[in-house]
Specification:
Blueprint: H1 22-38, E1 66-70, E2 76-78, E3 81-83, H2 88-98, E4 104-108, H3 114-126, E5 132-134
Parallel strand pairs: 1-4, 4-5
Antiparallel strand pairs: 1-2, 2-3
Length: 141
């Protein structure tokens, strides 16, 4: 039985080629937990029952679009905050100017009267916000 104790030519220069997967598995499990926790937080705006349409989706240029929602009671929300319709343009104008060229996405509940959606569109148009995308869901989706 021999032991390699020196730095000379007598030293065994074999390399251990096995990969230790335990740290890799630990990191992957931590990442999985992080993504499971943060994924529900990526939801934009408030929850509304969207109308169904077969139109093609618009391409998003940013990860955090400006979302304007109207629930079935007619309450208007900017992202998650309720906003009175008279203050809507004042609240949206700085956001739109900071993100030049980005449309505002409008989510209207399918049970909402069409006239209420048109009123909000009119307020936005009179306030100079003209790039507006309507958010729908695919039929059967």
């Amino acid at each position: 039985m021999a032991f390699g104790v020196g730095f000379g030519a007598e030293q065994d220069e074999s390399v251990l080629a096995d990969i230790n997967v335990t740290p890799l598995v630990d990191v992957m499990l931590v990442l999985l937990i992080i993504f499971m926790i943060t994924a529900p937080m990526l939801h934009q705006g408030i929850e509304v029952a969207l109308p169904r349409a077969d139109a093609d989706a618009m391409q998003l240029e940013v990860d955090d679009p400006i979302v304007l929602s109207i629930n079935r009671d007619g309450i208007v929300y900017v992202q998650d905050e309720p906003v009175h319709p008279t203050l809507l343009v004042e609240r949206l104008q700085p956001l739109v100017e900071a993100r030049s060229g980005e449309p505002v996405f409008l989510k209207g509940d399918r049970e909402l009267a069409y006239g209420r959606v048109v009123e909000v569109l009119d307020i936005l148009q009179r306030g100079g916000i003209e790039q507006i995308g309507m958010v729908t869901e695919r039929p059967g989706g």
